[in-house]
Write a structure and sequence with these properties.
alpha+beta, eight-stranded mixed sheet
Length: 127
């Protein structure tokens, strides 16, 4: 885990009263379609309000966030040692890739519970 990303989030990005529910190391972007987005390795942080990807390197910080209210479906898959979550929104998808299946599964379970996706359960995509 890159604790510095979590510490940075708490110090500069966490909103008052916002609770961190889960987090995991990885990258954003779909390497098969648009490539991994600039920012390198970082951390996806799930709060009770939003998803935040935070990465910092050299003199640059990358921060992408998505309100949970925009997410209507979650897909997950595992290919070649990478475990991917795809958060679908009306505007497109937010991809998160991790080499840790445990991190992916924790994020998946907590996000699905928070979003009340019982009516539309997270869907595994078989490759």
């Amino acid at each position: 885990m890159k604790q510095r990303h979590l510490d940075r989030f708490r110090a500069t990005r966490q909103q008052p009263g916002e609770e961190i529910l889960a987090y995991g190391d990885g990258q954003i972007g779909n390497p098969l379609e648009d490539g991994v987005r600039p920012g390198g390795d970082g951390m996806l942080i799930l709060t009770d309000r939003r998803l935040v990807f935070l990465s910092s390197f050299l003199f640059r910080e990358v921060c992408e966030e998505m309100p949970l209210a925009r997410i209507y479906e979650i897909e997950y898959r595992s290919v070649l040692g990478y475990h991917t979550l795809e958060f679908k929104t009306p505007d497109g998808s937010f991809f998160f890739r991790s080499s840790s299946k445990d991190s992916r599964d924790t994020l998946l379970k907590r996000a699905a519970r928070l979003l009340d996706l019982g009516k539309v359960a997270p869907r595994e995509v078989r490759v």
